[in-house]
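Limitations

Structures in this collection are predictions, not experimental determinations, and the ligand pose is part of the prediction. Treat each record accordingly. The example that follows, with zinc ion as the small molecule, is included so readers can see exactly what is and is not provided: the inputs are given verbatim, and the output is the predicted complex.
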Amino acid sequence: MSYARVIRPALGATPVPTDLPEPGKPQPPIYPLQIGAHGAWLEVRASPSDGACGVHGYPCRHPGIDVAGAAGTPVVSPETGTVVMAGDGASAPYAGYGPWFVIIQGDDSGKFHFLGHLEPATSSMAPVGAQVGAGDQVGVTSSADHTHWEVRDRIVPNFAAGEDNFTNNSDPLGVGTVLLVGGAALFLWLLMRKRT
Ligand SMILES: [Zn+2]
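Predicted complex:
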């Protein structure tokens, strides 16, 4: 399968190296970045028992990065921009992203940061129309214990034209590549170890 980047660590088990957040610079919505239970961009699950795959069947893909963080963890804007959408994730095309989500359009990238599974009705919730800087708090993590982060080209894929959440999205940090490099390093280490 062309999308096979297999990444499925346990919740919070895998810190991913990123640059320290700096004011005004792009950053993960929770820092330090840790990949959550659903894995990362274009995950392929190892077995049906690894989790429900919804409409995608099995094996399934995951169009975003789950960033681990216990309930109540501040979630910040990954980029300076504008909150263009917020809601409860209860109905199409945002069903499944609840209990609350925000979408921020980045000033520099022009892309849409979709942050899902936030706690609703908190004072830190960013309202539609708010201007936010990179690192400004836009919500808190819910009891889902992770924030789902997508980077979308459009707010909603053009389903009528055959787009879906995969063709419409980018890997937020190229995390799959980072972990593949880590895996290759581990493989080399194991090879070297056998020789001694
Ligand atoms: Zn997710």
